[in-house]
Design goal:
QueA-like, Thrombin, subunit H, nine-stranded mixed β-sheet, six-stranded antiparallel β-barrel
Length: 357
């Protein structure tokens, strides 16, 4: 007999109707022009605000924790010697080499040579050779060029790794994406997706928050492709979100632990910060240092560090909406999402945000 999966763990319980025109394809004209839905975590109706209202919605002593990872222009286009086109998403960089997920009709084989293309899809004269192919759909490639600096190569030839649900060619918006698909506190290169809740902040807004007595701390989690990985199992607890590296400085850990000791709210800016703090704070105190996490946060998770959350609106049936539901309750979150759809909120990476307190 097959065990019945409780609704809060069933993938089918995390669906909602989302018209295609609700998926933001470009960012708002100004970062703080995005809308902000405020959802009380336990009870009460949601309220509609602008993101620029955030300083008045928090209180002195609140600690905002942000992710300072920097998105690398990890998307490359290449051409096989046979003429076939290949799209690469660089996951790991090494001296003269890199590992990348690849998209091509006929796959890749060891020894194959690819010519990387310029941003306008012309020949660059720079070739890479496939060293090995991994079973997870990625390959190790070596740069065949006197200049083997992978980061420099990405800076010249790479495109921002926009999510698959942004269905447009990025050529027209290339410079806009380089600026706006990056937070203003991005510092540590390594992410292949933006920590999108942080995209709404500006230096002026951060100054307003500081003036209001709201404190900040910075941690780093390099967002990997697992953030876009669909859940393919009916029991969401069986989903693998992938491994992501993080770092928490001693200063950040001290600020977070002091807030916990003093009973002040620790508000995670994004699901990436939430997963990092809950991974590093299993004892109820955050431990400084470097590490990696594949923590899946689902209903039933006991939140030991995070007491507030800023997050964008996520894909139906994704690990991200499961995380938010674990924090605020599945039925409350889905009701808020239905309100967002009716009210014209913009969804996903370039969309609007929610504040759960």
């Amino acid at each position: 007999m097959t065990d019945v999966i409780p609704p809060r763990f069933a993938l089918s319980s995390y669906g909602f109707d989302l018209p295609a025109d609700r998926v933001a394809q470009v960012p708002a004209p100004l970062r703080t022009a995005s809308r902000l839905m405020v959802l009380p975590r336990r009870s009460g109706a949601q309220r509609d605000h602008a993101f620029g209202d955030l300083p008045g919605l928090l209180r002195a002593g609140d600690l905002l924790v942000v992710n300072d990872t920097r998105v690398i222009p990890a998307r490359l286009f290449a051409r096989k010697e046979t003429g076939g086109r290949v799209e690469l998403l660089v996951l790991d960089r090494f001296p003269g080499r890199f590992r990348a997920m690849f998209g091509t009709r006929r796959g890749l084989r060891p020894g194959a040579r690819l010519e990387l293309l310029t941003p306008d899809r012309g020949p660059s004269g720079i070739h890479v050779r496939v060293e090995s192919v991994v079973g997870d759909g990625s390959a190790h490639l070596a740069v065949e060029s006197p200049d083997t600096d992978v980061d420099g190569l990405l800076a010249r030839l790479g495109h921002m790794p926009l999510p698959p649900y942004i269905r447009r060619e990025d050529d027209r918006f290339r410079e806009l994406d380089r600026e706006r698909y990056q937070t203003v506190f991005a510092r540590e290169p390594g992410a292949v997706a933006a920590p999108t809740a942080g995209l709404h902040f500006t230096p002026d807004l951060l100054a307003e928050l500081e003036a209001a007595g709201v404190l900040t701390a910075r941690i780093t989690l390099h967002v990997g492709p697992g953030t876009f990985k669909p859940i393919m199992v009916e029991d969401v607890r069986q989903h693998d979100v992938g491994l992501e590296r993080f770092a928490i400085s001693g200063q950040a850990a001290d600020r977070i632990n002091q807030a916990l000791d003093e009973g002040r709210r620790v508000i995670a800016v994004g699901t990436t910060v939430t997963r990092t703090l809950e991974s590093a704070g299993v004892s109820g105190r955050v431990v400084a240092g470097e590490g990696a996490t594949r923590l899946l946060i689902a209903p039933g998770h006991r939140f030991r560090v995070v007491s507030g959350l800023v997050t964008n609106f996520h894909l139906p049936g994704s690990s991200l909406i499961v995380l938010v539901s674990a924090f605020a309750g599945r039925q409350r979150v889905l009701a808020a999402y239905r309100h967002a759809v009716r009210s014209g909120y913009r969804f996903y990476s370039y969309g609007d945000a929610m504040l759960v307190l």
